[in-house]
Amino acid sequence: MQAKRFLIPAFSFWAALPVACPMVVQAQSTSSPAPQSTVAPLRTVIDDYHGIKVADPYRYMENLQDPAVQSWFKAQDDRTRSVLANIPGRPQLLARIEELDQSVSRVWAARIAADLYLVGKQLPSENVSKLYRRRGLAGEDALLLDPEKIILAGAGQGKGKNTIWGMSASHDAKYLAVGIIPGGSEIDGEIHVIEIATGRETGDVISRVGAEAWEPHWLPDGRSFVYGKLQKLPPGAPASEVRQKFRSYLHVLGTDPAKDAPVFGYGVVPSIDVDPSLIASVQTQPGSPYALGVLNGSVTPNSAYYIAPANAIGKSIPEWRKVADFADGVTSIAVHGDDLYVLTYKNAPRYKIVRIDARKPDLASAETLIPSGEAVITGVNPAQDALYVHLSDGGIGRLLRVPYGPHAKVQQVALPFDGSLYVDADPRLPGVLLYVTSWTQAFKIYAYDPSTQRVTDTKLQPAGPYDSPGNIESVELKVKSYDGTSIPLSIVYRKGLKLDGSNPTLLYGYGGYGYSVDAYFEQTKLAWYEQGGVYAVCHVRGGGEYGEEWHLAGKGPTKPNTWRDFIACGQYLVDKKYTSPAHLAGEGISAGGIMIGRAITERPDLFGAAIDKVGVSDTLRSETTQNGETNIPELGSTKTEDGFKALYAMSAYDHIEQRTPYPAVLFETGMNDPRVEPWEMAKMTARLQAATSSQKPVLLRVDFAGGHGGMGGTKKQHQESLADEFSFLLWQLGAPEFQPRQ
C-alpha cells in the first residue's frame, strides 16, 4: 500500500596486525606534489570472538569526538584535496561536468488530483531542488517551497544545505507534509507542513524523523497523519539503540508534536508483540477505508502486515488483524475496494501477485492473479482503472495492466524504449505516470492513458542537448563466475571502441538487500566516455536482479559470492581486452563497500585503482553503530559463531595484509553520515596506508557538510565529488592528459 508521497532521488547515481610503516603515499611514476600523509598511530585492541582473537589497531578512531581523531580527518582531507587539485586535466574536467550538469533542469513530479501536480525542479543555475504547484501538464509552476529558506527547529542547524527528502499530500490535496534534511544528516530531518494552495507553513514542525518509515501517511480526515520518528536516547546510551523500539505517531494539525501519541509499533498494541529491532509504520491509501500496520527489519524485503479501519486510528486502539507474517515473504500490498493485492516471493523466488479479501484476510485461500515467471515482479501499483504491475525482464522494465474484477485480461503496455522503469499511480485517478531511462538515454516522464491506450511524453522533464547521445552504446552480457553461475554484466562505451586493453574502465557493483542496479543515464557521465572511458555494471549476487534467490545467494554466509562475481566480471573485461589490470578500476558505495573492499584485498593484482564511497568495511564493528542492529538480518551478528565467521569473511578491514601491492584507492565519507559511520572509511584508510607496498596513493576525502554518499547533497557537492573521482581514476589508469609533469 502506498500513500501519495514521493522520495526524492539522490544524485547518482552503499587479521594479522600490520606494522606501522611511515611512507609517502604517491604513485610510482605519476606523483602529484602534495604534503605527506599523516600516519595514524597504532593503539591495538584485541577482541576475542568465540575463541578467535582479532586485532584492531585503529579502534580509537571510532571516537569521532576525540580532537586528535578530528585533526587526523582534517589532515587527511587537506592532503587529499591538495593531491586532487594538482592533477592536470581536473580543472577542464570539472568545467565539462558543470557544463553537462547544467545543460538541463532536473524534474520529478507527482499527480495528486485530476489536474494538479507537485513538481520538484532544479534549474541549471540552482544548487538544490525547489517544490512547485502546477495546474495541468501545460500549466505554470507556482513556487511552494524553497528548502534553503526553511528554518530548522531541531539539531540540524548548521550541518549544511537543506534539501527536500520526500513529501506526502493529504488525500484532499490541501496540505503537504515535507521532509527536510540538513547536509545529508538524515537523523536530524524534520517534517514541515505547508498549505498546497498558498505555500504557507502551518507551523507544524516535527523533529527526529530519520530515514526509516518517517514518511507521513494521511488519515481520511485530511487533518492528521501518522509518521515515524527515532527515539530520543538518554545520555550515555549506545548509538546502536537509536533505531530500536521504533513507533509510529499520530499528529493532528495545530497540536503540539511533543504530545503526539504512538499508535503502532514497539509496546503500543497489546495484542502484537513487536521485537525492538523492527521498524514500524502505518500506511494508508487515498480513497481506501483501510490502514496497514507494517513491521519490517529495515533491510529485509519481507514484512509482517496487519489491517485495521483507518478512521479508528487515534480514537481507540484498533483491532489489528494479521494479514501476513514474515514467513509469508510479502514485500508489498496494494488495496482496491475490499481486495488486497499481495506481492510475495513465497514459493515464487521471482515473485507472484495473489488476491485476498480485506474483510477476511487469509493467505491460505489466496487467488493467484499473476504467477511467477521468468521476469521478476518488482512492483504493484493500484490506479482507478486497473492494477499496474512492474516487472524487470533481464534488467529491462516491463509494464502490465490488469483490469479489476474476475477474469481480467492482462495487457502489456508498450513503452517508448527499452530501459528501466518507475511507476507512479494514484488509486483515485486513471492511468499512471512512468519514468523511463536507459544506459544511453536520459529519463523522461511519460503518461499512460487507458482510454487511448497510448503512452505520451508529458513534457514535464525538459529536453536537453545531451539526452540521447548518438555516439554512446551499451551491451548486455553474461559472465561465468567462479562457481559457474552466469552473472549479468552491462557495458557502456563510446562507439568505435578498440578492444586493445588500453581503455580506462570503471566497474561498478552493489549486491545487497535484494536491490537491483537498474539502467540509468547521467549526462555527467559523458565526461568519462569523452576521455575514452568504459563504464560497466556487474549485477552481483546479493542484489535482486533475479528475485529473492539472487538476494539470498549473496547474503550473510553466502556474501563471498558478491565480491567473487565482481572479480569474475573484472577478469572478463581484461580477458576480452576492454581493458587491462593497469587500466581497470572498481567502485562500491555503501553496502557495496563490502564488495569493493574484499575484491581489492582478494585480488589486488586485478585493479589499478578503486573508489570506496561511504563503504561498509569493518563488519565486525558495524554492529555497534546506530545503523548496526538493523543490518543484522542482512549481514549477521558477531554474537553467534556462525555470524562472526560470515562477518569476518566479508570484513575488508580485517583482510588487509602487510607489504602487499594494493591498487590506488580513493575513500570517501560524509561527517553527517548516519548509515555508515565515518570511522569505517577512516580505519580502512589508515590500515591500507600502513600496509600497501605499491607506493600508489591511498586517499581519504571527507565532506564535512555531507551525509551518506551524496544523499541530501547539493549540485555543487556532486560536481566536485565527480570531478575528483574521475580525475583520480584517469590519473591512476594512465590517461595522458591527467599525468603530472615528471
Protein described:
- This protein has 742 residues and is an alpha+beta fold.
- It is 15% helix and 31% strand.
- The chain is built from ten helices and 39 strands.
- It has an eight-stranded mixed β-sheet with strand order 32-33-35-34-36-37-38-39, sandwiched between helices. A five-stranded antiparallel β-sheet has the order 1-8-9-10-11, with no helix packed on it.
- The protein is globular and about 70 Å long.
- The chain starts with a strand and ends in a 10-residue tail after the last helix.
How would you summarize what this structure contains?
The chain is 15% helix and 31% strand. It is an alpha+beta fold.
What are the main properties of this structure?
742 residues, eight-stranded mixed sheet, alpha+beta, 39 strands, disordered N terminus, five-stranded antiparallel sheet, globular
Provide the fold topology:
Elements: E1 5-7, E2 45-49, E3 52-56, H1 67-85, H2 90-101, E4 106-113, E5 116-122, E6 130-135, E7 141-145, E8 162-169, E9 175-182, E10 190-195, E11 201-207, E12 217-218, E13 224-229, E14 247-252, E15 261-265, E16 279-284, E17 290-296, E18 303-309, E19 321-324, E20 330-336, E21 339-344, E22 352-357, E23 367-370, E24 376-382, E25 386-393, E26 396-403, E27 411-413, E28 420-425, E29 432-437, E30 444-449, E31 454-457, E32 472-480, E33 486-494, E34 505-508, H3 526-529, E35 534-538, H4 548-552, H5 560-575, E36 584-589, H6 592-602, E37 609-613, H7 632-635, H8 641-650, E38 664-670, H9 678-691, E39 698-703, H10 715-732
Parallel strand pairs: 34-35, 34-36, 36-37, 37-38, 38-39
Antiparallel strand pairs: 1-8, 2-3, 4-5, 5-6, 6-7, 8-9, 9-10, 10-11, 12-13, 13-14, 14-15, 16-17, 17-18, 18-19, 20-21, 21-22, 22-23, 24-25, 25-26, 26-27, 28-29, 29-30, 30-31, 32-33, 33-35
Helix pairs in contact: 2-10, 5-6
